[in-house]
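Hi again,

Forgot to attach this to my earlier email, sorry! This is the prediction with phenylalanine bound. I've pasted everything inline since the attachment limit keeps bouncing my files.
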Amino acid sequence: MEKKRSNFSGGIGFVLAAAGSAVGLGNLWRFPYLAAQYGGGVFILVYIILAVTFGFALLTAEIAIGRKTGLSPVLAYKKLDKRFSFLGYVAIIVPVIIVPYYCVIGGWVTKYITVYATGLASEAAGDAYFDNFISNPVSPMIFFLIFMIISVIIVMLGVKNGIENLSKFLMPILLIISVGISIYALTLPGASEGVAYYLIPDFSKFSLMTVAAACGQLFYSLSIAMGIMITYGSYTKKNVNLSKSINQIEIFDTAVALLAGLMVVPAVYVFSGESGLSDSGPGLMFITLPKVFEQMPGGNIIGLFFFILVFFAAITSSISIIEAIVSSIMDKFKLSRNISCFIVIGICLLLGIPSSLGNGLWENVKILGMDFLTFFDFISNSILMPIVALFTCILVGWVIKPKAITDEVTRNGEKFARKKLFNIMIKYIAPIFLIIILITSTLSQFGIIKM
Ligand code: PHE
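Structure tokens for the complex follow:
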């Protein structure tokens, strides 16, 4: 018997779950670094312009495809056009590659919560603390398993009881903590210089790379091309106003990115100087920031709140990407939610263990010169995701035509102010941006250009 598809209870549940997916490590450890590198206010300006044009078009396309077809990515593309069924498979390989290593990193975050909660903050500020931790074969593995199991349990609880309820609870808290830490960071002596560095546009740092970097960041930050937004769209009721929801998701995601910059840039600038901002990702979060917290008055408690915030951001993202896989397995193979979840655990163990060991025991095993985690990140983010999004644009712009999407958005007679913009973006401009992302992110991975 065909079971009824799960649903979010309404607009707010959908918006907070989707915002939960969008707000993740990308906002917290990559946006501040990029803003600092690419001229502060200039980068922010470019990012916001791209968010309301390029990001908006891709996000709209995916969410509407999900709601229109009522299917997870593996079947949704096929339903729109048979010739695009391959895209469903590529789109589902992306989360399969990302989930395991995202859970490894989620494990590191979990570890740092325990570090700050047990008063070991000064140890974490030590030079080799993080490297010693990740190169240990056992400890990161345990935290990886903890993070993964928590994520899978939430997904097992279902779309409404698990994902929606958790997002409704965590996302408002996340926002409050972000605002709280930002305000605190602004009161630090010398912060104003750091804020100026973050916000005042430095046009001398503007180049085509600013646009390329902002495009890539936006694309990752909105959880596009990971199968997630199609899946969440498919759980959204027909009476929900998509255009309004999409605006809210974008505002939430961009607001947290901007707040992350306020939390991180001035504080690092004050305590570590400009050079502290030359590192992105794990280096910034697990090495530089603990040193900053150590010097900051009240840094232990701020550090604890900060890592709780990162954990909330990471867990609401990991459940969304697990759900993309689970819903695809459920749709395609007609398996139950629980069995599909167990399959995801299997995938995580298979690919997550090498990712976790790649920093220690297996550090000499390299693929194209990268450890496992970096390699998985590269293949998914720099290669597969731009390809998925590019073909989505071709499908929507040229095959089923933008009207199929705009009709879905306005099915209840809602206003859709950016309809024209959507058409132009999806047909002409977004594909060009995606090709730029594909090229620049590949070149930067191989060190040919710096990003
Ligand atoms: N938008 C997410 C982020 O910024 C991207 C992501 C979502 C990554 C889900 C993994 C899983 O981190």
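The longest helix spans residues 299-333. The chain has a mean pLDDT of 92.

That should be everything now.

G.
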